[in-house]
Amino acid sequence: MTHWIVLPVVLPAVMAAFMIMVIRHHLDLQRIFSIIATAALVIIAGGLLNHAATGDVLVYELGDWPAPFGIVLVLDRLSAMMVMLTSVLALAVLVYAVGTGWDSRGRHFHALFQFQLMGILGAFLTGDAFNLFVFFEVLLIASYGLMIHGGGSTRLRAGIQYVVYNLLGSTLFLFALGTLYAVTGTLNMADMAERVAALPLEDTALIRVGAALLLVVFAVKAAVLPFHFWLPASYANAPGPVAALFAIMTKVGAYSILRMFTLVFGPDQAASAGLQSWLLPAALVTLAIGMVGILGSRQLSRLTAFAVIASMGTLLVAISLFTPESSAAALYYIAHSTFATALMFLIADMVIARRGDEIAVHRPMPQGGWIAALFFVGAIALVGMPPLSGFLGKLLVLDAVRGAPSTVAIWTVILATSLIGIVGFARSGSILFWKCHDPGIVTPPADEDELPDPIELARAERAMRAPSPMAFSAAFALLGLIVVLTVLSGPMMAYATATVDQLYAPTDYIDAVLRRTAP
Amino acid sequence: MELLLASAVGILTACGIYLVLRQRTFPVIIGVSLLTYAVNIFLFASGRVVMNMPPVLSDSAQGYTDPLPQALVLTAIVISFGMTAVVVMIALSAYLSARTDRIDMDDEAEGSAK
Questions:
Q1: Chain A window 150-169: which residues touch B at a Cβ cutoff of 8 Å?
Q2: Nearest CA-CA distance, residue A414 and chain B, Å
Q3: Residue B48, phi-psi category: left (phi > 0), alpha (psi -120 to 50), beta (remainder)
Q4: Which family is it part of (chain A) (predicted)?
Q5: A–B: how many Cβ contacts below 8 A?
Q6: Chain A residues with CB inside 8 Å of B93's CB?
Q7: Which of A26, A380, A403, B80 is the most buried (most CB within 10 A)?
Q8: Cβ-defined contact of B87 to A154 (cutoff 8 Å)
Q9: A170 vs B83: CB contact, 8 Å cut-off?
């Protein structure tokens, strides 16, 4: 069991290298190996989750160097849950990408996909702040490749914006780490937590700066206002399955906030007190912007990107309160919003392949009924209407903020924006799926400039001719996961509550990492 | 020495931020590179500035300089080098396919620039 914890990092890394060096010209082999490796990841994640559920904090010392000197991987309930979430999502997305043939539109899709998984899983598992930076870079550099997969000038130009924005974020991350290292003399998170707590209050000015910079960096990753500008253009122009995988990438930012600001800069830490209060207003505005963006989008891909922003807003409202109840609600919402936004990206991709990105009246598309049903259920999940997990998640968030000083504001914003979101989804859904059946409406003749280029047209026709069972089964699997999340919300919340107990009593984590307890 | 290092970090950061806010990709890439140089120097200084001291244990040493920031800088240099290469390649292919190197995606502004 002790070596298992490093497998989620090693397996994708080896797989990716293997795919580039040995089977780079065999797409079929790449597909088989990629799906097998990702399925193996799900099994490994299941084993890790099973172990973490006992409440044991598992520490893996890389190179067998003891903790404050070497780099450690740490598995607690939170990491195990995020690893599970990532691998399940990755499997569904991969099946979709293979089913629709997205992976054949450029080279090295599967290798990049595996590197991306390596970065994401590593970021969830690491117990070292600088190592977190390195895994961020791994996942980012893979995501640059995936983002521009398939090419096209709009996508490439959106890619530059995405890369530059993230390079600036990485620079800021390094500044933050340098500052923290200068004060504490350590980069191990557990060790840093102890040293920050031991610092006298008058020496904490630099710590405060470092913590604030770190919060900004994670806010960039999590697309919190005012750092959300990169997201709509990037996600809307990324290939559909890639955007669906990116649904977990914003969660990496949320995870890092939750991790660093409970472990190192805990709520009762005097050194960083007051920083968290900045997060709540930002999260509320993010939520509002996201929902208004849903209402105002003229393209389906942008609508979905704004849905990501809205769900991050809701999630960060729950995180920003830093009470055990709200964090448990946040964990449930993380799982829900990952699956729901990923599902929406897949649906958007199906629609775009059949009739283009514009939310306007067209002739009915093939398999329109299935896609309309998926869109309907996905929209219900995303805006948080009963009976799906979005409703439960929002209910939990609303319930958790009761008694907080700003309850009225939070309730007002969440409920009002939900209404805006419902209107937005209803508008686009009815235009996309219903109005095309209205005999009174004549499709306007396509503008000469608006005509898609012949390659895109050929692709769309191919997609129409062959309804891919794999693509649909991936979408329905994600839908099934949302239903499972709804039905099993009881056990899920029990796990989330246990996770939060572990998060808010970090002594176990610190002792395990610094080997203070009996092995 | 401290003044020199601090002003180097400051000036590099200021130039970097100015260049990043430009509209064409080339100055932006240069700006990002300047920022990474600034952060590398900053990281180097985060282990305190010590002159002429060895970073590894030795019998004749009078004192030591912190070796960890040097390792961090090395990692940061490698990563930023790779990232710069990637961004140059993406920028180049975007320029070649779109025939413009403006970094914003405002199509109207692009039309007037032509």
A1: 151-154, 156-161, 163-164, 167-168
A2: 32
A3: left
A4: Belongs to the CPA3 antiporters (TC 2.A.63) subunit D family.
A5: 98
A6: 148, 151, 156
A7: B80
A8: no
A9: yes
Q: Is residue B58 part of a domain?
A: no
CA-based nearest residue to A360, from A308, A291, A430: A430
Burial pattern B69-104, b for ≥16 Cβ within 10 A else e, equals: beebbebbeebbeebbebbeebbebbbeebeebbbe
List A358's β-bridge partners, or say none.
A299
| Separation between Cα atoms, residue A96 and residue A469, nearest integer Å | 9
Q: Is A1 exposed, middle or buried (0-12, 13-18, 19+ CB in 10 A)?
A: exposed
Cis-peptide into A68, omega within 30 deg: no
A192 touching B (Cβ < 8 Å): no
Best A132, A167, A235, A449 member to test B by mutation, with max B CBs in 10 Å, is A167
From its phi and psi, is residue B55 left (phi > 0), alpha (psi between -120 and 50) or beta?
alpha
The boundaries of the domain holding residue B18 are 2-51+66-99
Domain boundaries, chain A: 4-445+455-513
The verdict on B28 touching A (C-beta cutoff 8 Å) is yes
Nearest CA in chain B to A133: B76
Cross-chain residue pair B42–A171, CB shorter than 8 Å: no
pLDDT tens, N- to C-terminus, chain A (519 residues): 578 889 999 999 999 999 999 988 888 899 999 999 999 999 999 999 998 888 888 888 888 888 788 889 999 999 999 999 999 999 999 999 998 888 888 888 999 999 999 999 999 999 999 999 999 999 999 999 998 888 788 888 888 888 988 999 999 999 999 999 988 888 899 888 888 888 887 778 888 888 889 999 999 988 888 888 888 888 888 888 999 999 899 999 999 999 998 888 877 777 677 777 888 889 999 999 999 999 988 888 999 999 999 999 999 999 888 888 899 999 999 999 999 999 999 999 988 888 778 887 777 777 778 888 899 999 999 888 888 888 999 999 999 888 778 888 899 999 999 999 999 999 988 888 888 777 666 555 545 455 556 666 666 565 555 567 888 888 899 999 999 999 999 999 999 999 999 888 888 888 888 877 654
The CATH number of the domain where B15 resides is what? 1.10.287
Question: What is the rounded distance in angstroms from the CA atom of residue A456 to the CA atom of residue A158?
Answer: 19
Is there a contact between B75 and A153 if contact means CB atoms under 8 Å apart?
no
Q: What value of ipTM does the predicted structure carry?
A: 0.90
A164, A177, A188, A230, best to mutate vs chain B, most B CBs in 10 Å: A164
Is residue B60 in some structural domain? Answer: no
Tell whether B42 is within 8 A of chain A (Cβ): yes
Instruction: Count structural domains, chain B.
Output: 1
For residues A86 and A48, give the distance between their C-alpha atoms in angstroms, rounded to a whole number: 13
Cα(A419)–Cα(A413) distance, integer angstroms: 10
